[in-house]
Amino acid sequence: MSGTSMDGIDVAAADLRLRGETVELSPLGHTAVTYPSRLRTRLMTAVAGEACGAGELCELDTGVGRAFAEAARHGAEALAGGRAELVASLGQTLHHWVEDGRARGTLQLGQPAWIAETTGLPVVADLRARDVAAGGHGAPLAGVLDALWLAPGAGTVTIALNIGGIANITVVGGDRPLAYDTGPGNALIDVAATTVTGGRATQDTGGRLAAGGRIRTDLLEELLADPYFEAPPPKSTGKEHFNGDHLRRALDRVGEVDDSDLLATLTELTAVTVAAACVRHHPREVVASGGGTGNPVLMAALRRRLAEHGTELVLSDDHGLPTDGKEAYLAALLGFLTFNGLPGNVPGTTGAREPRSLGSITPGTTPLRLPRPAAQPVRSLRVTDHDADDEQEAPCASPTS
């Protein structure tokens, strides 16, 4: 998968097995593959709202498909040791259409036929559209992993937080699982970093730009006035809303802002909006993942705001999934669930009317053979260490993603 920051293709390999009502996930490794620079530039231009005709769209879909195919080939060989049986792809979101608080459509690029042709494996892809068709937002799909993985004890609420281009949370332990996008994660920070460095940097690596600035309260208040932050969940957003134009309009209203102050303020905006969303649900712990966890200025601001409400901030590594690989492991889980006839969405997290098996399956180079559909729903996910000797337990095994 590649997130809204488009800073590369995240690849993970996992051994997944059904054990009654539990999915066991053994991480085999993860990595990131850099997009070809020209392709990334064209994608960023298209997402920014510039005209994208049918020809350009076809070329982008093919380009992303080929890039994902090479990433999948690398993952199958280098991470899965040549034993992969299934590929799952969340693709590259180019547009997420939300109108009047309801998702009307979503478009992910990365034609799966290229992945199937390159790897020879069946591919589960286009995983968001079915949830949207069922009345959901198609995001955040991480709710199904988080709800199964972080189920806490009675009376305890845990929140899974992903800080990508857009930040999203999953609330586990309440009346029912709930997930939604809180607003910008790195999206506006990346826009500002690109602008103030004249394109030399596309992100504020290590929070260095923000660390030298002070928070401009007038700009922060202007940005916080956006009605999205007070809209009730489930809800979703993207770079269609939180983009360069959005930031420029806010700057036009407050006047000139020093470069480092701009980065400091946008970093604080992410911390404020994420923390405000989290504390509404009174969690004991927030489990963070995603690229934003590598920004110490952002993490310090978020940790401070959560601590004021007695909430601890930890990393997903503490629960067995790497911070920079968790979303790719999500893709693997979603593909595995679909292949076994199981739903990949949780209605409370996306707003869908009912659970649905997600995505479409593109056969590999051999006839498609699906396993017998699971006889019972899955109620938990257990992250385990990979055990090569366990590979002999064929009657219990389900495909590797």
How would you describe the overall organization of this protein?
- With about 400 residues, the protein is an alpha/beta fold.
- It has two domains: about 10-125 and about 360-395, 2-Layer Sandwich (Nucleotidyltransferase, domain 5); about 145-320, Nucleotidyltransferase, domain 5.
- The chain contains 13 helices and 13 strands.
- The strands form four sheets. The protein has a five-stranded mixed sheet, sandwiched between helices. Strands 1-2-13 form a three-stranded mixed sheet. The protein has a three-stranded mixed sheet with strand order 3-6-12, with helices on both faces.
- A hairpin with a 2-residue loop joins β7 (about 160-165) and β8 (about 165-170).
- The two termini are about 15 Å apart.
List the helices and strands and how they pair.
Blueprint: E1 9-19, E2 22-33, H1 37-47, H2 54-79, E3 87-88, E4 92-99, E5 102-109, H3 112-119, E6 123-125, H4 129-133, H5 142-149, E7 158-163, E8 166-172, E9 178-184, H6 187-196, H7 208-211, H8 217-224, H9 244-254, H10 259-279, E10 285-289, H11 296-307, E11 312-315, H12 326-339, H13 347-350, E12 360-362, E13 380-383
Parallel strand pairs: 2-13, 3-6, 7-10, 10-11
Antiparallel strand pairs: 1-2, 4-5, 6-12, 7-8, 8-9
